[in-house]
Amino acid sequence: MSRDKQLKERWEQLVNILSNQFSQGEDLDLDAIIYLIGVQELGKVHSEYKKDEKLNLMHIAICRLLEPYGFYEFEFFDEEGWPHYKVKEELPPLKAGEQSVLMKEAIVNYFLERELIE
Asked: Can you give the pTM of this predicted structure?
């Protein structure tokens, strides 16, 4: 199976699972899934977040997702339990479609590690 086709199938499977669990079946978009990963990484799943905290959660998720690609490295947890990452390598300039594919691939790999999908 081609890599692109496998990524597409795994992405669709993941969107279905997460959408059924978190949005009563309405398909979650890429940003919503990134947000969920941020909440998962912070570990405070039953909290309410302000707008700036939601952006920080998405940043946490992006750092965590791109860490295996060598772009970020975990540094420490602050006194409130928020993870902090440092930039190891700047992201190359990517077109919007390329960014989307990179993030989908990183998200699929994240959930493969957690055995939510196969």
From this structure: 0.92
CB neighbourhood size of 81 (10 A): 9
Which pair of tokens denotes residue 22? 């978190």
Higher-pLDDT residue of 87 and 46 is 87
Under a CB-based contact definition with an 8 Å cutoff, are residues 86 and 73 in contact?
Answer: yes
What the block records as the tokens of 14 is 């993941």
Q: What angle is formed at CA 20 by the lines to CA 115 and CA 59, rounded to 5 degrees?
A: 65
- Reference 66, options 107, 25, 36; nearest CA is 107
CA–CA separation, 20 and 15 (whole Å): 8
Q: How far apart are the C-alpha atoms of 87 and 73, rounded to whole Å?
A: 7
First to last CA, the chain: 14
